[in-house]
Amino acid sequence: MSKELFDLTGSVAVVIGGTGVLGGSLADALGAAGAKIAVAGRSRERGEARAEAIRAVGGTAGFFEADASSRASIAAMREAVTKEWGVPDILINAAGGNDPKVTVTGDHKFEDIALEAWNASFDLNLVGGLLVPCQEFGPAFCAAGRGSIINIASVSAHLPLSRVVAYSAAKAAVLNMTQFLAREWAPYGVRVNTITPGFFPAEQNRKLLFNEDGTPTARAASILGHTAMGRFGQSQELAGAAVFLASQAASSFVTGTDIRVDGGFLSQTI
């Protein structure tokens, strides 16, 4: 198989949420494949560190501060990236996370969720995790006649998980809107897909998965018992799916689809 299928040399990739564990791993993967990487997010410290790590292994990367829920912020970031490297052609929307305020557990029931907290979860996972970035980058991609948009969903988008009700609902909307945009922008040469990660330990879920002494929680044991491979994922295991979807040579006829990287979590019911 030709290496050119997965060569991203000449591409410019924007990774929103590249300051986090999973987003950072995706930034690393696309950088290793040759793309120039714009690490976008709110944490300058983590963003600069990620960009430096990519440069340290021979890649090209920079940090661009951005608030994914603000159209003005994303527009300014897009313009800055374009001025630096030209019109981007890859966008990864990796911003998101669960808010404990919308978690149904113990004495905190569904009817106790405040509307403000519910809206904040949707702002983070749907508005900032897809809507605003796609509104800003989509027209630019369409005008250029090319582009790959990769949205990050969740296994909870397919079947809702206990406790994380707002997160599950927002991620389900990410799947739905991805298919909508795939149809809208296919005539312009723009592909829109999702990656559905299984359970990958990161900042947002570590307390749900591990006790303070590092041992797995009861919830973690339940998750592993439901995962065919019997283990959590490692962030670098998302790399292949991301590079495949980012590459025009490898996935030119792929749009509106979802690639599950979940160790078989969604392959079984009980």
TrEMBL record:
Q: List UniProt keywords, sorted A-Z.
A: Oxidoreductase
Q: Name one Pfam family in it.
A: adh_short_C2
This protein's record includes keyword Transmembrane: no
* Domain of life per record: Bacteria
> A GO molecular function for this record?
oxidoreductase activity, acting on the CH-OH group of donors, NAD or NADP as acceptor
Concerning its family, UniProt says: Belongs to the short-chain dehydrogenases/reductases (SDR) family.
NCBIfam families linked to this entry: PRK08277.1 (NF006132)
* Protein known as: NAD(P)-dependent dehydrogenase, short-chain alcohol dehydrogenase family
What is the organism field in this record?
Answer: Terrimicrobium sacchariphilum
